[in-house]
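ok so I'm stuck.
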Amino acid sequence: MKKLWMVLPLALILCFMVGCEQGEQVAEVPIVDVDVDIEAIKKLSDVYGSVVSKGDVERYINLFTEDAIVMPPNNKIVVGKENVFLRAKSRFGAYKEMGLEEVTTPDEIHVFGDWAFDLGITSYKTRAA
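replied:
not stuck anymore, here's the structure
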């Protein structure tokens, strides 16, 4: 019985500490207006297509964060702004030479706190003369 009285306060203290720790984690979650973020992502998608079509590598790379991830179809995943830049340099200008314009259409946009992703469809059309 004496052991129970010794263990019980320790168990209560442990529960209290765990409960407070979880409360702190919840308090750190930023409040986000998801609809505003989704609209901003849609606008960036429009800018993205325009910038790619023009072959403006500098403006293109400024659309990305340092920890950007690009998942091109049938290619390796590209991680990091510098690697995205290197990939872009190797292909930009080709659209302009071929007379193509890239059109990007957001298909799924998900926002999770200060993190989001845009899964979209990319198509190409002949540039008007």
